[in-house]
Design goal:
Order of helices and strands: HEEEEEEEEEHEEEH
Number of helices: 3
Mean pLDDT: 74
Radius of gyration: 22 Å
Shape: globular
Oligomer: single chain
Number of strands: 12
Distance between the termini: 95 Å
Number of domains: 1
Largest sheet: 5 strands, antiparallel
Strand order of the largest sheet: 5-4-9-10-12
Length: about 200
């Protein structure tokens, strides 16, 4: 009797652990015509995912204070098994289509907080920047950092979907520190000049 009870508990524990994490499908990515937001370049032009790539670092968790890397790490064209990350105008796809990704600390079927740190990574397979930080600090880097809520699935009962919680994202250039310093000096000069008059 004790052996049967132990076996039942073990099976229940394995089942619970298999589906104990929030899961999103479609890897981490967006689909053309979906309800998720799109990725835009400066000037409001959609990111051309047909010929270009994004670098994306993905973290997730139950709330913004508990974000951890999800099981796919940092993706670039050179680290994605497909060899590309862009998939269509305004869209991207990390990893194989339909791959299930667990979100640490989120119950299956629950709501996860997802953070995407994205950068424009060019069209070459080697990419332009190795990391988000490198793109953020570069004069030619185009980046975006977005956090949003995402419903997860509970396979096999509820198949997870794409990133339908993702808003529109615009990749922007961050001004160099020297540009900011020059602007500060200009404003200070104007204030001094105005005070003298």
């Amino acid at each position: 009797m004790k052996l049967k009870t132990l076996a039942v508990l073990a099976v229940a524990g394995i089942s619970a652990s298999a589906f104990g994490q929030g899961v999103i499908l479609q890897n981490i990515g967006t689909g053309a015509g979906g309800t998720n937001g799109a990725v835009f370049m400066p000037g409001g032009v959609k990111f051309d995912g047909l010929v270009n790539n994004l670098g994306v670092t993905v973290t997730g968790g139950p709330n913004p204070a508990s974000l951890q890397p999800v099981g796919i790490g940092t993706f670039k064209a050179s680290t994605d098994p497909k060899g590309y990350t862009g998939s269509d105008l305004g869209t991207f796809q990390l990893g194989a289509a339909g791959a299930a990704i667990d979100i640490p600390g989120v119950a299956a079927g629950g709501v996860a907080t997802i953070r995407l740190q994205m950068w424009f990574d060019g069209s070459a397979s080697g990419g332009l920047f190795p990391t988000y930080a490198a793109a953020l600090g570069a004069p030619t880097g185009l980046t975006a950092d977005v956090t949003f809520l995402q419903n997860t699935g509970n396979p096999p009962l509820t198949p997870p979907g794409p990133l339908n919680g993702m808003p529109n994202v615009t990749l922007t250039a961050v001004p160099e520190p020297s540009t900011l310093a020059l602007a500060g000096i200009g404003i200070a000069s104007l204030l001094v000049f105005r005070r003298r008059n």
